[in-house]
Amino acid sequence: MRIGLIGVGRIGAFHAATLKGLPAVGQVVVADADASRAELTAKELGAEFAPDVPALLASRLDGLVIAAATSAHAELIAAGVAAGIPTFCEKPVALDLAATRQVVELVEGSDVPVHIGFQRRFDTGYQAAAEAVRDGKLGFVHHIRANTNDAFPPPAGYIPTSGGFFRDCLVHDFDIIRYVTGREVVTVYATGANRGEPFFGEYGDVDAASALLTLDDNTFVAVSGTRYNAAGHDVRMELLGSEGSLAVGLDDHTALRSAEPGVTFPAGVPHTTFMDRFRPAYVAELTAFTEVVAGTREVPCTVRDALQAFRVADACELSRHENRVVALEEIGR
């Protein structure tokens, strides 16, 4: 199959290389707002080059992967749907909730499959945790702890269009909490601070945040994250149940060290980026998309899933600004 890809920045180039290695993909065609960058990436990967998005969409594609800037996601999803091309788009669907709802209405009013990229759903650890919860192996889950700690902050130019820490970073935790538990968030209380580079505060953002979520079965979830975790990229989840407990991301690459004498675990080299941490999950995710394109699989992460995670992120941002508990009902449907 022929897969088109829009956006050849860091994650886009990574996706293009991954797609080139998938057995189901015969050719990858790349485009970018910077045509020269797309042409260079095409030469490096042995892919085809399209000078712009219209040319890409007209190049007889079987599927479309969107890895462009967040501000372009909604428009590009609409273009893919209009062209009748099965589409994969990196999260988030759009920069704000209203635009996200518009995309959901557009996609759900069509018969074009649209798969949103929350790669943690394809990580074997999170999948095992979801299975354990479904099978009742942990009894009833009463507490969950989830964290996303980046090893180093993004550049200042990224922040104005990122949507903020909750929407850009912790939204992954909000999605995977729904996936693992099968439950919905009903209330949030969130806070954040900026203790690093001043540019976060200049754009109204934070570089560290925490949130307490209550799920619809009264499970409590503590979510935290930071842009400054020099020990390494650290993404984990702990599930505490009445009959047992389970941890995702606890292995020899965990960016954490014990203070106890004689303890050498974890002994490996910590991950430094999210691409290191989730490389197999990204391969599995794009493999799943090729199955969606082939019509052999239902969309595993829908635009409505993305909307629900975005609602939680919006509730956290409102809670941070107003210093109060926010019910998800306030954020709409």
Automatic annotation (TrEMBL):
One MF annotation (Gene Ontology) recorded for this entry: nucleotide binding
Record EC number: 1.1.1.18
Catalytic class of the enzyme: oxidoreductase
GFO/IDH/MocA-like oxidoreductase domain sequence ranges: 126-246
Superkingdom per UniProt: Bacteria
Organism: Kribbella flavida (strain DSM 17836 / JCM 10339 / NBRC 14399)
Limits of the Gfo/Idh/MocA-like oxidoreductase N-terminal domain: 1-118
Coiled coil: none
Keyword Calcium (UniProt): no
Family designation: Belongs to the Gfo/Idh/MocA family.
InterPro entries: Gfo/Idh/MocA-like_OxRdtase_N (IPR000683), GFO_IDH_MocA-like_dom (IPR055170), NAD(P)-bd_dom_sf (IPR036291)
Keywords: Oxidoreductase
Protein name: Inositol 2-dehydrogenase
